[in-house]
Amino acid sequence: MTDLLTIAGLRTVFRTHGGEIAAVDGVDLSVPRGRTLGIVGESGCGKSVLSLSVMRLVAHPGRVATGSVTLDGRDLLKLSNADMRDVRGSQVAMIFQEPMTSLNPVHTVGFQITEAMRAHDTHASKAELKNRAIEALKRVRIPAPERRFDEYPHQLSGGMRQRVMIAMALACSPKLLIADEPTTALDVTVQAQILDLLRDLQQETGMSIILITHDLGVVAEMADDVAVMYAGRVVERGAAGAVFADPMHPYTLGLLGSVPRLDEERETLLAIEGSVPPPFALPKGCRFHPRCPFAVDACKSEQPPLRMLADGHQAACIRAPVEAFVA
Amino acid sequence: MSDTLLEVTGLAKHYPVREGLILARQVGVVRAVDGVSFTVNRGETLALVGESGCGKSTTARLVLRLIEPSAGTINFEGVNVTRSAGAAQRAMRRRMQIVFQDPYASLNPRLTVADTIAEPMIVHGIGDTASRRKRVEELLGLVGLRPFHAQRYPHEFSGGQRQRIGIARALSVQPDLVVCDEPVSALDVSIQAQVVNLLKDLQRRFGLAYLFIAHDLAVVKHVADRVAVMYLGQIVETARKGDLFTTPRHPYTRALLAAIPHPDPQRRGQVKPLGGDVPSPMNPPPGCRFHTRCPFAQERCRIEAPALRRMADGHEAACHFAETLPPAGLDFSGGLSEIAAKRLALYARALAA
């Protein structure tokens, strides 16, 4: 009832010489109002294609094959292109990993922010837009916003650029912000500043956030709910507290084991063997089975569905929780 | 035990900044590295950590003389190699190798893996074709690749595998010191762990010394013996790893440690971000370079630059008030829940089996 966004049965495919491959393959997720969903996974797990599918920005030869993306009761996948353009920016906005490549180097910061505003408000005067842009810069705590308005992206540091991106994304007060690895390119002290800012802005505006990241620390810091993706599918989802305290899927365990922790010292890190399979060479059965230390024959034939293992906590593994199967 | 392999004293690299096209006149100096001193002992790992632009990668390249220092000396096994040239320099370079950050850009796409790994041996005139081929096979096995990989090209490999190739190439000439310039920061977490484990394993087997450049303190905590923290071209703190993480003396080190997000939602919101940005190395602040962002800064910090001072038990810090700062109040404990730890143990056991 309070879900802002519901994704159901989403499947995004790319046409290749070898036939269609699914980068996102049957994903169900929801984001409640005012909350943050963290999507975790490694390169190639489909988390970025998922967010582009929500924005309907998947480029040719990719397309959303099946499923629905319902925002506030409207299926975004059924909207006309013109209606979808209205939704982008004003309802759903996105920020990306590389603040330098997502900003246009030949336009001033001010021009780029007012550009987004103008797209949704054709009547506002130039002076009014400028005031609103400076307000937006102030909101993301950029010092001397009047001066920054006339500067170019190369004159800003990485953290400042990401703030500009956030200011631009929030210029039209969207209900949902999709942040795709927003702090991956930044230093840790700057990362802490940006995460702090996102949290404060969420409190102020009540927006929902989808935070896409490979960093479990960032997810733990920010997310209310977590979805772990592997090879185009969600393998575990639940409240952040539950997923970290009671990790069910072997892939989630592997990720937790791979992260060097500050609170302990281990001789060797618990690595996951091998690497994520490319979408054109997916293994049969559970997609994680070739890398899974708990895999048995049944894992090789049947693709396990997500099943409820605890209150609101699902995992797609027939061997979860592992202690029930491995003594 | 403390058998010094590399000793660097007062190392500096200043880049002139010019303006104008033809009669370019110098308008300033970027002090990328500004008076850095440290030692690396045989078989140990010294980590150089800091944020982008602090000069850690420049320091690494200066040590290898891939760029020439503006000042300072580099001693390798007690021999001054700062100005060595010709055969002496080549001999030194055989013993110091490097693993680069970007496994995509640091391998020649037109060379097979075998040729890539054999190239340093050819440069240094080691062995003949047959013995080099044998050595390549041996190295591939060492870094966890298969013999049939030798005839393949870099594009056929994933990021983690490419990094293994880069490591094999560095080890081909049996160096004593390997400079690892952010070797795992371009890799996914699960792959990061594989490469970190490999580096540690190789160090144990061959007694390698690592100069490990990194910005991720959690990784550093895992691989380093000693840590040097850099800020704006200077070292602000060095200590044995345990000391640095339990009792960081410099406010900047504390800020770095406090900024690391902890993989535990119970502890959310404990990160207190440091304000501001790193100042420009062209115009560093007077006095202590950190004073513009330091929560403990006082009048003296704005005027007088603090020197790196030796404190208890080999711990060094460049802060006027290092002894009198309030306790850091860092607490990294209590990450894993009981059930998660139990399942991880089962995972480790199943992995070993």
From TrEMBL, chain A:
Pfam families: ABC_tran (PF00005), oligo_HPY (PF08352)
Domain ABC transporter, chain residue ranges per copy: 8-256
Lineage: superkingdom: Bacteria
Subcellular location: Cell inner membrane
GO molecular function: ATP binding; ATP hydrolysis activity
Main subcellular location of this protein, as a coarse class: membrane
Any one cellular-component term (Gene Ontology): plasma membrane
NCBIfam families linked: oligo_HPY
Listed name of the protein: ABC transporter ATP-binding protein
From TrEMBL, chain B:
Keywords: ATP-binding, Nucleotide-binding, Transport
Xref: Pfam families: ABC_tran, oligo_HPY
InterPro entries (UniProt xref): AAA+_ATPase, ABC_transp_ATP-bind, ABC_transporter-like_ATP-bd, ABC_transporter-like_CS, Oligopep_ABC_C, P-loop_NTPase
Top-rank taxon, per record: Bacteria
Gene Ontology CC annotation, any one: plasma membrane
Protein's cellular compartments: Cell inner membrane
Protein's membrane topology: Peripheral membrane protein
SUPFAM superfamilies listed in its UniProt record: P-loop containing nucleoside triphosphate hydrolases
CDD domains per UniProt: ABC_NikE_OppD_transporters
Ranges for domain ABC transporter: 17-257
Single GO MF descriptor: ATP binding
GO biological process: peptide transport; transmembrane transport
Protein family: Belongs to the ABC transporter superfamily.
Protein's name in the database: Peptide ABC transporter ATP-binding protein
Organism for this UniProt entry: Neoroseomonas lacus
